[in-house]
Amino acid sequence: MKFWTHVAAIAWKDILSELRTREIITSVLVFAVLILVIFNFTFNADSSLMRQIAPGILWVAFVFSGVLALNRAFIPEKEEGCLDGLMCCPVEREAIYVGKALGSLFFMLLVEVVVLSVFALLFNIAAFQPEIIVVTLLATIGFVAVGTLFSAMAINTRAREMVLPILFLPIITPVIIAAVSAVTLVLDAKSWGDIFSWLVMLIAFDVIFTVVSFMVFPYIIEE
Amino acid sequence: MKPKILLLVSSLLILASLAMVFVFVPTEANQGVIQRIFYFHVPVAWVAFFAFFVTFVAGIVYLVKRNPLWDMMACVSAEIGLVFTTLVLITGSIWGRSFWGIWWTWDARLTSSLVLWLIYIAYFIIRAYISEEERKARFAAVVGIIGFVDVPIVALAIQLAPTAQHPNGEIFHGGVKGLMLVTLLLSIAAFTALYLLFMVVGISIKKDERELAGIKEAMKE
Fold first, then answer.
1. For residue B167, is pLDDT > 50?
2. Does B144 touch chain A (CB under 8 A)?
3. Among A77-86, A131-140, B88-97, where is mean pLDDT lowest?
4. Distance from the CA of B198 to the CA of which of A81, A152, B11, B119 falls in 20 to 30 A?
């Protein structure tokens, strides 16, 4: 029980500081909307083609803005010496991982809700279907599970935030494939049964990488 | 094992498998002579995968035991794995050029191999950006573990994806029997021996580097 009190305290600290500074949410949100707008120019496609490629555009926006948000998860911790403080606290290292991950999950979901609305509006697509919401939630959990681990790692290298996308993107390819395929099916008026295998894959990824990251995270922030 | 013995064994095995591939094995009826690259391609892929498995296991053992020898082993094995994955991509491309008429297609196996290659590129980028040996070893171990766990999931996701499905198992069309099977097994043995040789030599180079770094440190003081 004490573990979850610690987790909640760490997550709440992140959410509170974000609500006061609005550093992550503002810039990540603007970045994600910019991706949508830029894709509109680069493809300059008619509406039927746009419908076909829309799921891909949406997930590129989610993935790239996710990298931006996850990078910010540990930069202030490192710069302000907060991580050292956390490590001196009588708190399990795993609790730091779960707390940071929950904080990032909260920010990313907040950004995704807005991006999904903008996406629905700009591309004239019914984006708020229950299937799409579940897929987005599951995929975001997967992003955050590995992303939090890699973000803590990246910040402790010389290249800092440059390292995160290089580590993060190849590892999350299954999530991207599953999410894009599932959303494409849903937009083709398919339902739960048709996206079932993708949902199973997303859940499997989430479970496996939450457990593995949880186990190896203490080795990352050792010193 | 002594590197000299391994050198002898792997040289003999490679010569034998070359003789089998170019002289004795019959030409496959469906694909013609290009199918012979398969006796190179498959063993190389096997070694690459085995090498990453060794990196995965050595990484776990390093995190538990903290003996730098395990990190050397993980690193050398990943180096070999990366080189062999590159060879898999190149030999696969050559085969594809002659059989499909194109160097690259987003076929399930090709794409999985490319993602695998990118994961282990990241493994070495992480190593390059950390100066402290101990932290380098720890982070690399974590990437080696996460990367290896990811590989089957990547392969499964790409397999399930609706895009660009090429007929699977084309190369095994009609099964691998008789002399073809013997040649394949011999090539696998040859490349596995080569892997062991590279491992032994690579680890001894790493040990020397470490010793040298220690001497340099001592001379500074």
1. no
2. no
3. A77-86
4. B119
Distances in Å between the alpha carbon of B38 and those of A13, A16, A165, B51, B176? 57, 59, 34, 19, 11
Contact A102, A7 (CB under 8 A): yes
pLDDT-above-70 percentage for chain A: 99
Find the distance separating the first CA and the last CA of chain A, reported in whole Å: 26
Q: Which helix (H) or strand (E) holds A165?
A: helix A163-171
Asked if A187 is an interface residue toward chain B (Cβ–Cβ < 8 A), one would say: no
Give yes or no for A201 touching B (CB within 8 A).
Answer: yes
**Distinct helix (H) and strand (E) counts, chain B:** 6, 0
pLDDT digit string, tens, across residues A70-114: 988 888 788 878 888 888 888 888 899 999 999 999 999 999 999
User: Which residue from B126, B131, B138 is facing A222, i.e. has the nearest CB?
Assistant: B138
- Spatial neighbors of B193 by CB under 8 A, at least 6 apart, are B6, B9, B10, B13
Question: Contact at 8 Å (CB) between B78 and B120?
Answer: yes
Closest CA of chain B from A167, distance in Å? 6
Contact: B122, A167; criterion CB under 8 Å = yes
A167/B153 Cβ within 8 A? no
pLDDT in tens, A182-195: 999 888 888 888 88
Task: State whether B146 and A149 contact (CB < 8 Å).
Answer: yes
In whole numbers, what is the pLDDT of chain A averaged over residues?
89
The minimal CB distance from A171 to the residues B119, B160, B162 is found for B119
Shortest CB distance from B150 goes to which of A171, A177, A220? A171
